[in-house]
Amino acid sequence: RLMGCFTLSSVFEMDTTPESYLDLFPLETIVYLTPDSENVLEDIDPNKVYVLGGLVDESIHKQLTLRRAREQCLQTARLPIREYMVKAPNSRNYHSETLAINQVFDVLSTYYETRSWPAALRAGVSSGKGYVLPDTAKQ
User: Fold this and answer.
1) Which residue among 45, 57, 106, 135 is the active-site one?
2) What's the mean pLDDT when you consider all of the chain?
3) CA-CA to 33 of 20 to 30 Å: which in 41, 73, 110, 136?
4) How confident is the model at residue 54 (pLDDT cuts 50, 70, 90)?
5) What are the φ and ψ backbone dihedral angles of 120, each rounded to 5 degrees?
6) What residues have CB less than 8 Å from 1, skipping those under 6 apart?
7) What is the CATH number of the domain that holds 31?
8) Residues facing 51 on adjacent strands
9) In a domain, 90, yes or no
10) Could you give the number of structural domains in the chain?
11) CA of 116: how far to CAs of 5, 42, 84, 108, in Å?
């Protein structure tokens, strides 16, 4: 399998390797991002390695990434969607904090550049997820 390692800066670099992140980085530096974590990601620590899971947790595999991280004795965190966004009324009553990898990357890279969770979440969380920033909830 290939693993992409991203360096968050104004220029994004990516290296691919068949090695596991568990073999490349000390366990105490790895933070597995999963929407099911109890821990809220409050800031990006440049000394940590953030794993963006490529599994869908939304339906059949609920909490799969959280279980995987716990099995590997890794720290976990979730994006602060609940802390900065509100549930938007919608006809399907659908609200999901599970994002695609590119959306998570957009959130993280925007936060890294702006240091603003509202700006970052606006960049990465589509309205189709059922969450909006409070200032757009009534629009």
Assistant:
1) 57
2) 83
3) 136
4) low
5) -65, -45
6) 18
7) 3.40.1280.30
8) 32
9) yes
10) 1
11) 23, 10, 10, 10
